[in-house]
Amino acid sequence: MTEGELETRAGFIALIGEPNAGKSTLLNRMVGAKVSIVTHKVQTTRARIRGVAMESGSQLVFVDTPGLFQPKRRLDRAMVKAAWGGAADADVIVLMIEAHRGITDGVTRILGALSDVAKGRTVALAINKIDRVKSEVLLKLTQDMNDAFPFAETFLISAEKGHGCDKLRAWLAEAVPAGPWLYPEDQLSDLPVRMIAAEMTREKLTLRLHQELPYQLTVETENWEERKDGSARIDQIVYVVRDGHKGIVLGNKGETIKAVGQAARAELQEFLGRSVHLFLQVKVRPNWLEESERYSEMGLDFKDGNN
Q1: Domain-located, residue 46
Q2: Do residue 161 and residue 36 come from a single domain?
Q3: Which end of the chain has less Cβ packing within 10 Å, N or C?
């Protein structure tokens, strides 16, 4: 390395925690762009989504994992397996918890499992949503968490508002190993753009449908056509498990799917920086939760859902 040349560093950073802890929000803030689905609903991240951020001479590859919870269905089991797999493959693990919820049963289970997964890895604690509690509560929670596990560092943050995030990113830049960058400097994510597009539409559906259809649908990008005028035609299919769900997704006179399509198209245009023609279809596939092809589209391993 010549004099004045910056030493490069690069590493994978797994964001783990319970559902809705703020992992996707933190990932998007660190990357500076929206690469992960963000809603107020739990369990919205299904695959391990990687976002790439640059800090000084370090390339930080964030892995936004599905929330860790008690799995019941095949999809749940595959998601939890993916989350722990993301942690096991990482150079640095950041456990995120919510300040106002404290040490829940779920956090206790994660701390118990961390002892094995974290061997040989640096583990930091990020207490999120700090604006929701008083300072004395934060101090006690910080102490209790560090008594329960030997964290290398603790950060008090608000992923939504950005408080403390710069300190966390600067620390991570020093914590990842020295070595060459893993991705081109201007790359934001290793997800195929087709999957990012499908995730954006799924987010709009999740926000629009509230509690009616929480997790029994998926979105796939069936066709992507680059047009001569620089625009893109994107055809997507929304899969649901029963006819009644199809009616809910379509809405009265197709109003719901139309609104979802408009919102998704606007966000896709902003993300891609060009005109997008988005076409959505809704299809009933009663057994999509048991089809290996659907898991591949979500970036999950079908076998991981086995008991």
Answers
A1: yes
A2: yes
A3: C
